[in-house]
Design brief:
By secondary structure, the protein is mainly beta. The protein is built from one helix and ten strands, in the order βαβββββββββ.
């Protein structure tokens, strides 16, 4: 556990992994731009395996680049982030046999998973495509407890796995732009130390709502079609 001084690591990690995701998406587009897609979602998340910060939260987003291997199978790369919060009223915490702390707490659990994804279309309709998918990779987490004028935090890395069930909706049969909705479950093996105890592993359930865009390439320049 470390005394909290700055959260700049969040910005550095997010920028680095977003750059990696964009590079992966661009590489897919070089194979066949007509088969490359980008998903951008707003994300709602609820922890189900820990009471550290167990309030449902909409402070998250998901980014995913996909390439169609066949009309039904797609592979790609993803990165998403989320923050859950919980407020604890003023209480006295027994930190050790000789130490006690009386304070209220504002808890924050930050998650940054990234890795590879695969999905399978259950039905290849012109306007709707229901699918099942799974995301596998690594996850960075930071659990922070704010109290008084400071706080403590702990960082951790672990394995990430997330099955999901979703639907892609296309207003036009050309499928250049569509809407995306998905429900998911995820599990992380991260181990964290907090002010009041240790957390081993974390599970979450939630849903995503966003857009599904086709990537195009013109004269070596990439963009999305809407």
């Amino acid at each position: 556990m470390v005394i909290m001084k700055t959260n700049s690591i969040f910005k550095k990690l997010a920028l680095a992994f977003c750059a990696l995701a964009m590079f992966a998406t661009q590489s897919y587009a070089q194979w066949d731009s007509q088969k490359a897609h980008l998903i951008v979602d707003w994300q709602m998340n609820a922890p189900v395996s820990t009471d550290f910060a167990d309030k449902i939260s909409g402070w998250g987003m998901n980014f995913e680049g996909l390439y169609e291997l066949t009309p039904r199978w797609s592979v790609g790369a993803f990165i998403n982030f989320h923050t859950n919060h919980k407020y604890i009223g003023r209480q006295t915490l027994q930190l050790s046999p000789t130490e006690a702390l009386t304070t209220d707490q504002q808890r924050s659990a930050y998650q940054l998973p990234f890795g590879a994804s695969v999905s399978y279309n259950l039905y290849n309709g012109r306007y709707v495509k229901p699918y099942v998918g799974v995301k596998l990779g690594a996850a960075f987490t930071r659990y922070t407890t704010y109290y008084g004028t400071g706080g403590v935090y702990d960082d951790g890395w672990g394995f990430y796995a997330s099955p999901e069930l979703g639907l892609k909706i296309y207003p036009s049969p050309y499928r250049r732009f569509g809407f995306h909705i998905a429900g998911y479950y995820n599990y992380m093996t991260n181990e964290m130390s907090t002010l009041t105890g240790d957390v081993t592993g974390q599970s979450n359930v939630g849903f995503r709502l966003g857009g599904h865009y086709k990537i195009f390439c013109v004269n070596g320049k990439y963009g999305i079609q809407v």
